[in-house]
Structure formats: structure tokens, C-alpha cells
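writing this on my phone so excuse typos. first protein, seq and then structure
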Amino acid sequence: MIISSKENHSISEVAAITMYYDDSCVLCSTEAHGMQTRRPKAIKLMPVEHGIDELQEAGFSRVDAMTYLCVKTDQGEWYTHMDAVRLLYKMGGVKWASVLYLPIIKPFGDFIYPTVARNRYRIPNWIITLIYGKAVTQACTNGVCKIAPDKR
């Protein structure tokens, strides 16, 4: 889902993005820091709590911003859900990012993303560790992020 108040620009014109992420989520924090490490000049990280005013000005509620990935381009365009993931992976230089645009993969990702995003706290840490390895412990202190899901 692309939300923009400006005319759409080509993704190839995007030089930098700001990724707004739930820094209380192990999966989100690990992904955010991993992508930012790949391309530090192209990807700026902003925890939702620190960017809530800008997100709300763009029309995102706090609940939506904490649940779904939000990305803003250097040109002022907003991307969310799988559109944000695809842009993030492209900007992060992930070699297989173009697979996310394939005719079967793209609609499947668009369909499954909201379910995964809403249930990300139910994903066991061992699965996240299996995917990301030791990066999990780098994203959060001792593998635990700062706010428990029931306290959000």
C-alpha cells in the first residue's frame, strides 16, 4: 500500500528512506538494524515512538504504525505493508529482492503480510534466531526488547 501526497516517483529515483519500526519487537528491531547495517547512508531508522508526530501527520494511527512497517522516501512518499518491505529490501541491497515482485510472490506477500505483522509477537524467538542468528541479541538487550506486547 502506497500512501503519498506527492506525485509518484519511480522507486529507482529513491536515494534514501526512513524506516519507522516497532523497536519493542525482536523481529522488527533485528530486521531494521540488519538492513541499516547493509546500507547506512540509504536507510535511516526511526522507532515509531520517536516519529509518531510525523506518522500521524501522514495519516497513520499509532496502532497501525506499530503494527505495519512504514517507510518514507527522501522525496516524501510513504510506503506501508509489503510495499514498504519490498522498498526496504531493494534499498538494503538484498540480492533476491526482485523475487518479491514476481507475479505469484507479490500477491501472496500482500495477502500474508498483515497476518504475520499482527502476530509477530507470537513467533517463537528460536525461529527468529534460526533466521537471523546472533543478530537477534544485537537488536535487543539480551534478546529481549524494551516493551512487552501486553504493555504496548
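second protein below, same order as before
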Amino acid sequence: MWADDPGALEMTEADYDRLPDDLRKLIEVIDGNVIRCQSGSTEHSDVARRLANGLEAAKPADPCTRVSTDVDVRFVRRRNRDDSFSFRRPDVTVYRCVERGAKLTTEDALLVVEVVSPGSGYTDTVDKLAEYAYEGIPVYLIVHLDAGLYVKMIQEYRLDWATRAYRPVEPHQEALVLESPFPVTIPFTQLDG
């Protein structure tokens, strides 16, 4: 199941594509290394779904964009560097429309969202921040929940194309107000249900 070379420990894209769906949902892959993913709480899942619904309702008909939750976003730029397979599965992804059945890549992504769960803080705020910027995803949102699992704050990062690094935008309090990839306002009360 692992790479064509029996001595290799890295997972290739072909290896990943052969896995059953129920196993694929449990992992992400960075540079061929498998990373086990834990499911978030029901509140985590609800916030991501409600945020996706709000973005879906606000997206314009043209240009064609889609909004999905928990879909693989395959890295393009990192792969070109050393040809190893990498992908993440953001909680919410806004992307340019792709052909039905096509694999979503970071070149298609316009905005990605991670809802921070206990244990995912470092990965969401450091690792993924650097990875998504390097891949050229224009907007990255990090949703922080408070101790009661209500939305406390949403950090917005915009890509500085010259440096391929994210620059923080004023944190969103009480409501998410975005101008890009399209205008939308979503009150936190809507996300908390």
C-alpha cells in the first residue's frame, strides 16, 4: 500500500487514491508523511457548516465559485519543489469552479477556513498558515472558539504576493465581514446557532 519502493515509508498520491473513503477521511498527507486527523466536536462541525452555508448564500453567480466543507485540497507548489504528495482538508474551502469529479488543488482555492479545536491550535495557526501562504491561497480564516465552544474571534489573513506570506487583517469580533473573494457579513450568532 505504501509507495512503489518497498523500502519507502512515504505515501504517494496513487497510494492515497487507492485507500477506501472511510480511511482517507482520517488522514492528511504532508511531503508523503501521513498525519492522523481527529474529528472536531459537534460545535466545531456546526460552526464550519454554518459558515459554509453563509458563504454559499453570499457567493455571486459569476464568476463561478463553489463552497465545500472537508474536501481535500492538493498542494501544487510544494509538490513542484520535491515531487512529494501533500494535501490538507480545510474545514471550509471557497474555490473556483472545477470540472465535476476533478481533484481540487491549491491553485483553485480562493479562501480556506480552519476552526481551531483542542489540540489543533499549533497546526492551524503556524503550520497551515505557512503552508497555505506558500501555496498562494489568497485568504485564510482561523476561527477561534471560547471555552463554551462559541465563536470568540475570527482571524483573517491576506496573502502578500511579493513575499508569499500572510499579513493579518483586523480580527473579526461579533461578525465576519469580508470583501474578498466576495462581500459577505455573517454574525457570530448565526455561526453559533
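The radius of gyration is 17 Å. thats all i got for now
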